[in-house]
Amino acid sequence: MYRPKTTLEQWRILQAVVDYGGYAQAATKLNKSQSSLNHAVAKLQGLLNVQLLEVKGRKAFLTEAGEVMLRRSRHLTQDVEELEALAESINQDWEPEITLAVDLAYPRALLYPVLADFLPQSRGSRVKLLDTVLTGTEDAITQGWADLVIGGSVPRGYLGEAIGEIYFEAVCHPSHPLAQMPSPLDSNELEHHLQLVIKDTSASPQEKQGWLKSELRWTVSQFQTAIDLLCQGIGFCWLPCHEVRDLVKQGKLVRLSIRHSSFRKHINWLVLPRPDTSGPGTRLLQELILAHRQLKAPDSGQDPRNNNAND
């Protein structure tokens, strides 16, 4: 039988040194001495006879071989974590708490009937319903802190079920200068006006979605705050159609017609981050969400902002 030369702890220390940006930072996060981390990585490199890190100045950088080994090591440590979680799941009949992370843009009107159906069957499980935005929603999946996640994308290496569609449109107050300009607007015009954006809930946000080219941006944490500012004539913002439809109908907000971008479409995905270790309560909640999903594509030629799928 093969006996490994290295230990999981050595690989975890290597991951921490890379993830936290150096030995000193990793030592603080792991509550270990910096010398013990240096020793562990040095021993790991010696056992493998491969240089994984090289120090330049005060920072440690991965070598090409180190990048490959680190990537493979993450699969190893994740598999062990999932194996231990599976053992814990086998020993419990029904999870005491279920964490459901839901992207802020997902219509809550679609979610509440699900929770109403779940309550009589929940066996006393507590439900933690948390709002997430953009990268924060992906973190709930990749970091595994949520049992179920509803978001606008599926990270690489995970599977998801499509459960609906959301359309975003740019809106502002009728008196805003952008609303007075001839349509359609050139996107260059937007760059000179205040843009309201919703705060990414990730600790390490990545600006990889949406139009974020305005020279001046204000960040808020909720759609309602953005809507309140818009109604005061402050800025413009891309918001879900279902959040602003009534205000547009009442004339309190207006849609901006922008060349090459009348609206943006997002698919809603339901993701089970740890399918092999999910408990029966999580599985039931997943089934109920799928049973209530409303996947409706707009009819050809119909303005999707008026489609019932956004209600």
From TrEMBL:
The keyword Ribosomal protein does not apply. SUPFAM superfamilies: Periplasmic binding protein-like II (SSF53850), Winged helix' DNA-binding domain (SSF46785). It holds the Pfam family HTH_1. Residues 6-63 form the HTH lysR-type domain. InterPro entries: LysR_HTH_N, LysR_subst-bd, WH-like_DNA-bd_sf, WH_DNA-bd_sf. Keywords: DNA-binding, Transcription, Transcription regulation. The keyword Oxidoreductase does not apply. Belongs to the LysR transcriptional regulatory family. This is LysR family transcriptional regulator. It comes from Bowmanella yangjiangensis.
